[in-house]
Design brief:
heterodimer; A: about 300 residues; mainly beta; twelve-stranded mixed beta sheet; 24 strands; about 15% helix; elongated; B: about 240 residues; mainly alpha; 9 helices; about 70% helix; about 0% strand
Chain lengths: ~300, ~240
């Protein structure tokens, strides 16, 4: 290539950088810096960080409608991000030692439901104790280890990879617990519950009209009690499980789809169903765990997982 | 005498009788007169309050359930597994237990008869209408006849039925999804309770249904409590 041609190419490149690339980059940078500010102005955004030592306790009371999301990180800090739909809601956030309290308050009760939405997103250390209370929004907790009490009137509760003593109480909200470990207590009137791939060694589930699904392994020496007044109680176990089963219903039916695996109890007292109830008793494997299923009028279904 | 002096006199000596100096000040000071009037109305209201307020039944139901859950008290008798006895001991035990049971029943019948005779002598007869009034529980679901709760639960049912209109009226005007959910779940619990009561009327010895009914009463108590709490926060 001759020097003159090279000179022309360089000049063309400089022209392109100056006239095209730089303006585009500037415009992009401007838009990128302006975007969070606009989001904050529309959704009223608040963010605070609190340094903690050891295992913190996080208490959230959301009296507005909205979602609470809790995830974990390796930092010894609690990060709280709150968004609210209007100024008719206010956040109160305070730290006392290792306790962080977050409360959303309705400042104007005359506000419309859409104006009374407050969402909270927390990032906490992996080992954290939680006490969350909300009214209608979803509670979502992921990868947190520690005791937790989660209460909701109408909102659902979704837990993923959490462990500890977990207490969930809802009025109409349902629970989905995926890969949970430890001890679980669930009580509800209309809410259903799904326990998927658990490592729970103590389970107490009680719902009046909701359904119960337990799909996973029973930990040896574990205790499992599942009761539904009117709903379906379904248990899917694996062929390697080992548990004693006691299933009883007052006016419903027991649908045993695992007759090939369920043997008569060989190591305990002979069971008979209580008077006026339909019952099924048996043992899978050596009968190391104890599983008690009951319903008032709903169906109890026992089946082996594929 | 100044306003502060009057306050001090009221704190130390009460409302009556006030010293002459205080009365003279009250005659001139409008603020102190209204202060004394407020105090007097407060004292009058306090005097009208009952000396002891019995906690509602839902408190006892929740407490009992909590104690049972924590294993502090037991809901039913323990099952005792015994070794099988020889046949001659079984025959002895058969007659011995029945003799004891017969004797106990006999004593109870006599005691009940004595008690009934004394009561008939001392108290006036109760008309069937009055008995019906006291025994009939409030209907659980509007439009459907309420089955009579089993005797064990009749007091709890009555207490909860008394509270229900109060609790529902507190969130009656609210259109929020939370209150709608509470009302919907109350309806579900009431239907379930009615269903269990109907079943227990036919089969009073059904323990499993009893357990479900007990749990449903507890849930209803908690639900009414939540409604009252929300009603207070709304109002």
């Amino acid at each position: 290539m001759c020097p003159r041609t090279m000179e022309m190419n360089l000049a063309w490149l400089g022209y392109c950088v100056k006239r095209i690339i730089l303006p585009v980059l500037s415009a992009g940078l401007f838009l990128w810096s302006a975007a969070p500010a606009r989001a904050g102005a529309a959704g009223q955004h608040i963010e605070k960080q609190f340094k903690v030592s050891g295992r913190p306790v996080v208490v959230i009371h959301n009296v507005a409608n909205g979602r609470i999301e809790v995830k974990s990180w390796k930092n010894a800090e609690v990060d709280v991000v709150g968004t609210q739909s209007s100024n008719k809601i206010g956040f109160e956030i305070e730290q006392v030692g290792d306790r962080v309290d977050v409360t959303s308050n309705i400042l104007d009760p005359a506000g419309q439901p859409l104006e009374l939405e407050a969402n909270l997103q927390l990032t906490v250390p992996e080992e954290t104790e939680l006490q969350l209370k909300t009214e209608t929004g979803l509670i979502y907790v992921e990868q947190v280890t520690g005791d937790m009490k989660l209460e909701s009137y109408g909102g659902d509760v979704h837990l993923k990879e959490v462990s500890g003593y977990i207490i969930v109480k809802t009025t109409g909200g349902s629970l989905v617990c995926t890969q949970c470990a430890g001890k679980l207590d669930f009580s509800s009137i209309g809410g259903s519950v799904q326990i998927l791939q658990p490592q729970l060694n103590n389970v107490n589930l009680m719902t009046t009209t909701g359904n119960i699904l337990f799909d996973g392994d029973f930990v040896r020496t574990g205790l499992y009690s599942m009761k539904s007044g009117k709903g379906l109680v379904e248990v899917r176990f694996s062929s390697t499980d080992s548990f004693d089963l006691k299933a009883q219903t007052a006016t419903g039916i027991v649908d045993n789809q695992a007759a090939a695996y369920l043997k008569p109890d060989s190591h305990g007292v002979k069971h008979i169903a209580a008077k006026f109830t339909h019952g099924l008793f048996g043992t899978v494997g050596m009968g190391l765990a104890k599983v008690e299923l009951s319903s008032y009028s709903g169906t109890i279904r026992i089946m082996k997982r594929d | 005498m100044q306003c502060k002096d009057v306050e001090l006199v009221l704190e130390q000596e009460g409302l009556e009788p006030l010293p002459d100096e205080a009365r003279a000040h009250l005659a001139e000071c409008r603020d102190c007169r209204s202060y004394v009037a407020d105090l007097t109305s407060l004292v009058d209201a306090a005097k009208k309050l009952p000396s002891e307020i019995a906690p509602p039944d839902r408190v006892w139901i929740s407490l009992r359930a909590q104690l049972e859950q924590e294993g502090i008290i037991r809901p039913s008798e323990d099952v005792v597994i015994v070794e099988p006895a020889p046949w001659w001991e079984s025959i002895g035990a058969f007659f011995r237990s029945r003799v004891l049971a017969m004797a106990t029943i006999g004593i109870l019948i006599v005691a009940a008869a004595v008690f009934q005779i004394r009561r008939d002598r001392s108290t006036p007869a109760v008309t069937p209408d009055e008995t019906a009034k006291t025994a009939e529980p409030a209907p659980l679901i509007p439009g459907t006849p309420a089955p009579e709760p089993p005797p064990v639960f009749s007091q709890s049912a009555q207490a909860l039925n008394d509270q229900e209109p109060v609790a529902t009226s507190m969130i009656l005007a609210s259109t929020s999804p939370v209150d709608a959910s509470l009302r919907d779940n109350l309806k579900k619990v009431n239907e379930f309770i009615a269903d269990c009561e109907r079943h227990l009327k036919e089969q009073p010895q059904d323990e499993l249904t009893r357990e479900y009914l007990s749990a449903a009463y507890q849930q209803k108590a908690e639900l009414l409590s939540a409604m009252i709490e929300r009603g207070r926060s709304i109002n």
